[in-house]
Amino acid sequence: MKYPIKRKSSTITTNYSNLGMTLESDIELTNEYYLANGIAIIHKKPTPVQVVNVDYPARNKAKITEAYYKTPSTTDFNGIYKSRYIDFDAKETKSKTSFPLRNIHSHQVEHLKNISKHGGIAFLIINWKSYNKYFFLPIDVILKYWDNKKDGRKSIPYQEFLDNAYEIKFNYNPRLDYLKIIDEYYLKD
Amino acid sequence: MKYPIKRKSSTITTNYSNLGMTLESDIELTNEYYLANGIAIIHKKPTPVQVVNVDYPARNKAKITEAYYKTPSTTDFNGIYKSRYIDFDAKETKSKTSFPLRNIHSHQVEHLKNISKHGGIAFLIINWKSYNKYFFLPIDVILKYWDNKKDGRKSIPYQEFLDNAYEIKFNYNPRLDYLKIIDEYYLKD
């Protein structure tokens, strides 16, 4: 049995009526909560756009009339929490059995691996839509499968998430409290 | 006497013929050097664009036909160096006497102040074009003037840069080695 995520309008309101709009919105609302409460400063990077043509119909108002989306060179989210550099991307899967590695770009894996090497906290937040569950997947677990991709499986089994990823419980506010995972597994003395 | 900065094509090449293209390009080349040499991972965020209309002339190829530039909510550059979160913006002035505070958006100052509070290293890189000089200006120095803006001066005098900012010498590669300042003044034991 599937538990479909309801997609509603992207208007951000303060009531709880548009719960589970999209993973990205839920993370952005979580980040707004973190920012407003002085907990962390984590932002989504703008989607990169290659601008080809711009008109100036009025003074000081540039109108872009031709542009194309570019592939981002890094991940979507980064920022600072308790002096630590945080970097992650958000992914969804409808699968019930395994998360396909083709959902991640190789430059994103390289970037997260590199961030981790430089002392940052690098991970993915993955929404298993069939189970209505959210996981914090550390870069180390991704690399275990990524590095064997050529001669082995091309996906990460759900069981691996149950064993070596951390579940993020969906709540009202903050929606997806992923920093709690960082407190428990990265910053505990 | 002025020392004009030559603006040339924005094509990035590996020779030194387009030295001093623009401050932003010089910082991006510096960041590429840092990344290629495993020193730091610092990227420029894409310019945010509000997309109003998109056409799909061909499968899988979205063409943006109406969009507008948005004011960025944070700064242009962030990343990680020696486990530390780095955040800054780049500014230029043609003045010979003082850097006008209207060159900085209030949300950028708030953001940098907040980053510093959370343990990050927050600053501006300012190019004094009349002197052909580059300075690393810590957020603390900015705040000293910013907080007195209403009842006092609306600019930071050049003398303050000489006294309390750090000069970044322009070189071949990396162009503007601003991490050297961080080594000397932030990370020294």
TrEMBL record, chains A, B:
One Gene Ontology term of the molecular function aspect: crossover junction DNA endonuclease activity
Cross-referenced Pfam families: RecU (PF03838)
Site (Transition state stabilizer): K91
Cofactor annotation: Mg(2+)
Enzyme Commission numbers on file: 3.1.21.10
KW Nuclease (keyword) present: yes
The keyword Flavoprotein is annotated on this UniProt entry: no
Gene3D superfamilies: 3.40.1350.10
Top-level EC class: hydrolase
Co-factor binding details: Binds 1 Mg(2+) ion per subunit.
GO biological process terms on file: chromosome segregation; DNA recombination; DNA repair
Cellular localization per UniProt: Cytoplasm
GO cellular component, one term: cytoplasm
Catalytic activity: Endonucleolytic cleavage at a junction such as a reciprocal single-stranded crossover between two homologous DNA duplexes (Holliday junction)
Main localization category: cytoplasm
Family designation: Belongs to the RecU family.
NCBIfam families: PRK02234.1-2, PRK02234.1-5, recU
Protein's UniProt name: Holliday junction resolvase RecU
The gene coding this protein: recU
